[in-house]
Amino acid sequence: MRIDTQRFGTLQLQTDQLFLFPQGLIGMESLRHWALLPDQENPSVAWLQSASRGDRAIALISPRAFFSDYRVRISRRELGCLHLKPGAELYVMTTVSGHVGKLSTNLRSPILVNLSRRLGCQVIADASQPIQQPLSISSQRKQTVADLVRRAA
């Protein structure tokens, strides 16, 4: 599959490299197939690139890499779309917005990914979590989203 993107140029991907988001993402419900790509310049960042819209790419981070006390509570019903088996790894990522020098991440609406089934969903979690949590992307972190992307490939 060929995807002409604004951010990454032309990508050649196999359909088995894509993640299915059965309900889409908040505000982009009709976009259901996404590629998870590493950021070549910053290993703390990854991108969700829409397979059907080359102009839709979303920056992601692993929130626990930046906020070690971050916890998200999700109901079994919300997790149902991921078809998790006992012991399966669930990855939690959050979207990044803003511009260099003033970045924030949305801790209230994390993106959940089941790598083994290549399924994802975005949920609205705990209302006490901020929608725009300031973020210092240059900080050294133990866990990076780039590691997740390499494992998903």
Number of helices: 3
CATH topology: BH3618-like
Structural class: mainly beta
- CATH level 1 class label: Mainly Beta
For this structure, what is the CATH homologous superfamily?
BH3618-like
The main β sheet shows up as: 9 strands, antiparallel
Q: N- to C-terminal separation?
A: 15 Å
Computed Rg: 15 Å
Care to count the β-strands? 11
The low-confidence parts are 139-143
The best one-word shape is: globular
Mean pLDDT: 85
* Beta-strand content: 25-35%
Helix coverage percent of residues? 10-25%
CATH architecture assignment name: Roll
Order of helices and strands: EEEEEEHHEEEEEH
Number of domains: 1
Describe what this molecule looks like in 3D:
By secondary structure, the chain is mainly beta. It has one domain: BH3618-like (Roll), CATH 2.30.290.10. Helix content is 10%, strand content 33%. The protein contains three helices and eleven strands, in the order E-E-E-E-E-E-H-H-E-E-E-E-E-H. About 3% of the residues have low confidence.
Tell me briefly what this model is:
By secondary structure, this protein is mainly beta. The chain is 10% helix and 33% strand. The longest helix has 8 residues, at 145-152.
